[in-house]
Amino acid sequence: MKNFMDDKDFLLSTKTGERLFHDYAEDLPILDYHCHISPKEIWEDKSFSSITEVWLGGDHYKWRLMRACGVDERYITGNAPAREKFQEWAKTLERCIGNPVYEWSHLELKRFFGYEGHLCPETAEEVWQLANRKLATPEFSCRNLIRRSNVRLICTTDDPADSLEWHKKIAADSSFDVQVVPAMRPDKALGIEKEGFGAYVKRLSEVAGMPIASFRDFKRALSKRLDLFAEMGCKASDHALDYVVDVPATDEELEEVFSARVAGKVVSEGDILKYKAAFMKFVAAEYVRLDWAMQIHLGCKRDNNTTMFKELGPDTGYDCIRNGQKAADLADFLNGANETSGLPKTILYSLDPNDTTMIDTVMQCFQQAPVAGKLQNGSAWWFNDSELGMRAQLSTLANEGVLGTFVGMLTDSRSFLSYPRHEYFRRVLCGLLGEWVEDGKYPDDPKALSRIVRDISYNNAVRYFGFDLEEQ
To answer: How confident is the model at residue 265 (pLDDT cuts 50, 70, 90)?
Structure first.
C-alpha cells in the first residue's frame, strides 16, 4: 500500500513517471498566465489573520462542498467565528474522498505548512495552530507565498476600465522580482444584455478620455485601453462566453443595438448574439495587432440559484456546466475572424468535457506557422480540473493533435495558496507519459522526454505568450 500522498509516488504509478517528474518537472518555475488573485493585495503584501481567511475567504470550490454536506451558510459566507468555520471545513473535507479539492488541500498543507498528516475534525485544532502560527510571520505574506512557490510571472484578470494603479506600483517596486502584469477581461463590455451596460459605457468613456456616442466610438475607446494594457506588459486577454457564435450583422444593425442598450431598452436575443459575434471579431483583430493570445472560457451557466445570487452575488458557487457549443459555430467564428483580420493565438477552454474532441479537431483547421500550437485546447478547467479531467484532456489532445506544443497549467484561483495545483498537474502529466513509455508506446529517450516535460510544464507558455523569461 502506498503512503498517503507520498512525495515520491503520489499520482505516479510507474518508475518512469517518477523519474520524469523528479528529474525534469518538480523544480521548474511557474508561469501563472491566468488567475484571479488581487494585484492590490500583492502590492500591499497582505498578511492573513488565519487559515480560514486565506483558505475559505473566497474559494467557492470549498463552499460548494460544505453546502453539499449540509453546513449552514453562516459557517461558509456568513459571520461565524473563523475557528468555527475552519472546524466545519475539516468535517466536510474528511468526507470528500476522491475529490480533487481533498488532494489540493493536503498538498497546500504539506508545501506551505509542512503538515504531513490529514485534516479531519480530530486534527483541526492541530492544523489551526500550526498554520496560524506560520501565517503570523513575515515569511507568509502574499509576496513571500508567491516567492516560495517559485512563481516567475503572474497575469491577473482586469477590466478595460480598470486603472491598473496596482500594476504600476508593483512594476516600479524593485524589491519584488516577480512580474505581475494585467490580462484584459472585457466581460462587461461584451455583456450588452446585462443590467448596467449603459453605466459601464459611461465609465469607459471617462477612463478613455473620449466621448462614446456609437459602437464605433466604443471600439475606439477599447483600442485605447488595450494600448495602455500593452504598455503595462499585457500579452493575453480572457473572455467568458456561454458559447461561441457567428451571427452576421451590418454596421447599421450593430449601431442600432448598441444605442438601444445604452439607452436602457430591451433588445432581442438575436440582436444580442449579433453584437457578441461582432465584438469578438473586433477584439480578435486587436489581438492580432498587439500579438496577444485570446483566451475563451465557454460552456458555463452562471448564477443558477436566484435566491442565493440576490444574497451573495456572482462567483459564490452556484455555477454549472452549460452544454450546447456547436462545432459549426466555433469553426465559422474562427474562419470569419481569420478571413477578416487573421486569427490571434487562441486558447479554448470548455467546461463541458464532451467538447474536448470537438475543440481539438476544429482548432487543427487553423494552425499556422510560425507559432507552434497557435490554437490550443486549454487545460482541464474548473469542474474538469481533477486527475481524471486532466488525463482526459491530455489524452484527447495527444490523440487528435500535438501534445508537445501544449502550454500547460494555469492557476485560475483567487487564493495565494493554490500554486501546488501546478505540481498536481505536472504529476498527472508525468504519470501519464510514464505509462505510455512503459507500455512501449514511446521510446525511453531521456532527451526527448525531458524536452516534452519541460516544454509542457513551462517553456511552451514562455514562448507562446512572449514574456521576457528564460526558458528552463
So the answer is: very high
Sequence-distant (6+) residues with CB within 8 A of 13 are 431, 434, 435
Average pLDDT over residues 60-67: 97
* 185-228 tens-digit pLDDT: 999 999 999 999 999 999 999 999 999 999 999 999 999 999 99
Query: Is 83 inside any structural domain?
Result: yes
pLDDT at 29: 98
- 166 burial type by CB count under 10 A (0-12 exposed, 13-18 middle, 19+ buried): buried
Distance CA 381, CA 436 (A): 24
Mean pLDDT of 286-313: 97
pTM here?
0.97
Helices (H), 263-377: 269-290, 306-312, 327-340, 356-363
Rounded Cα distance, 68 and 130, in Å = 28
CATH of the domain at 75: 1.10.2020.10
Q: Do residues 141 and 458 lie in contact, with contact meaning Cβ atoms separated by under 8 Å?
A: no
Question: How would you classify residue 360: left for phi > 0, otherwise alpha for psi between -120 and 50, otherwise beta?
Answer: alpha
Give the C-alpha distances (Å, rounded to integers) separating 399 from 154, 169, 351, 357, 403: 31, 45, 20, 9, 8
Pairing of β 300-301 and β 320-321: antiparallel
- Whole-angstrom Cα distance, residue 353 to residue 319? 15
Domain-located, residue 68? yes
pLDDT at residue 100 in the model: 97
How many domains, the chain? 1
- Residue 244 CB-half CA count within 13 A: 29
- 373: which 3 cell numbers? 500550437
Average pLDDT over all residues of the chain: 97
What is the pLDDT, as a whole number, of residue 146?
Answer: 98
In a domain, 108, yes or no: yes
Q: What is the pLDDT of residue 382?
A: 95
Grouping H, G, I as helix, E, B as strand and the rest as coil, residue 393 is: helix
Beta bridge mates, 321: 300
Q: Which whole number is the average pLDDT over 40-56?
A: 97
pLDDT of residue 205: 98
- CA dihedral for 384, 390, 392, 396, sign (positive or negative): positive
DSSP states of 76-126? TTSS--HHHHHHHHHHHHHT-TT-HHHHHHHHHHHHHH---S--STTTHHH
Containing structural domain, residue 77? 47-140
Residue 221: burial class (beta carbons within 10 Å; 0-12, 13-18, 19+): buried
Predicted confidence band of residue 280 (pLDDT cuts 50, 70, 90): very high
> Which residues in 317-336 are b (16+ Cβ under 10 Å) and which e?
bbbebbeebeeebbbbbbeb
Residue 426 inside a domain? The answer is no
* C-alpha distances out from residue 14 to 344, 434, 435, Å: 39, 6, 6
